Amino acid sequence: MLRDITLGQYYPADSIIHKLDPRVKLFGTFIFIIALFCFRGITAFILATVCLVAVIKISKVPFKFMVKGLKAIIILMLITALFNLFLTPGETLVSFWIFTITKEGLKSAVLMAVRLTYLILGTSIMTLTTTPNQLTDGLEKSLMPLSKIGVPVHAIAMMMSIALRFIPILIEETDKIMKAQMARGADFESGNLLKKVKNMIPLLVPLFVSAFRRADDLAMAMEARCYNGGEGRTKMKLLKYAAQDRLAYLFIWIFFVAVLACRFTLNKWFGL
């Protein structure tokens, strides 16, 4: 299960998506997330599906590798879907004991599950095709206007980049600790869900110790290299927009306008 978490990992490949400016990918991910919560109806759903599949195909990241990341959120998706299924009022379809399934609740549950799935896949494309350094530079450049009002843009970008970089490291560390304790006779597989959670508690202490040690080592390494924030720092690779980046911006805006058109016009005209 731990190995299935792909958030924060980088998948090297020679694709157009990998070569795009990180600011374009950040903007595209932001627009895609907004579009997910704007679309309603089958037309916008088909449009979002086609665009997502096309981007995954162009990125040259194996679809099976991306789907692995969904296994880690199956429980969250089920809980969210069940809440929407049983707690949404409307026209009753099935009623048993204290539970009532409504037509509106069924639609809401399916829609929320689809949105969560597409949300994970969409954000995974960005993290899998962008290195942590590129992500830091892209975030810093994108948020630069906020520095005019005193927001520590570089510090925020650096913290987010380090947090993403630490996710696969901590997952690998957890896996090592689990294997070491299983070799000593610990059991993490048998029993019900509550027992499995209790069995995971002994993992927390060595995991936190390891995390703090790694964070302290990173802080000492940055201090030894005279790191003092983004003020006056130069960069080896400057971010510059190319023709493909401008074309990507155009496609992103076309996609967003098409989703809004599906929501406010096609749905009213054709009832889709």
Describe this structure in words.
With 272 residues, the chain is mainly α. It has two domains: 1-131 and 239-272, no CATH class; 153-233, no CATH class. Helix content is 69%, strand content 3%. The chain contains ten helices and two strands. The protein has helices spanning 16-19, 22-36, 42-59, 63-71, 74-87, 103-128, 132-142, 153-183, 193-224, 243-270, and strands at residues 92-96, 99-102. Strands 1-2 form a two-stranded antiparallel ribbon. Strand 1 and strand 2 form a beta hairpin. Helix 2 (22-36) runs antiparallel to helix 6, helix 2 packs parallel to helix 10 and helix 3 (42-59) packs antiparallel against helix 10 (243-270). It is globular. The model has no long low-confidence stretch (mean pLDDT 79).
SSE map:
Elements lengths: L15 H4 L2 H15 L5 H18 L3 H9 L2 H14 L4 E5 L2 E4 H26 L3 H11 L10 H31 L9 H32 L18 H28 L2
Antiparallel strand pairs: 1-2
In short:
By secondary structure, the protein is mostly helical. The chain is built from 10 helices and 2 strands; from the N terminus they run αααααββααααα.
Structural class by sheet pairing and helices: mainly alpha
Shape: globular
What is the distance, rounded to the nearest whole angstrom, between the alpha carbons of the first and last residues? 38 Å
SSE topology string: HHHHHEEHHHHH
Say how many strands there are. 2
Cα gyration radius (Å): 22 Å
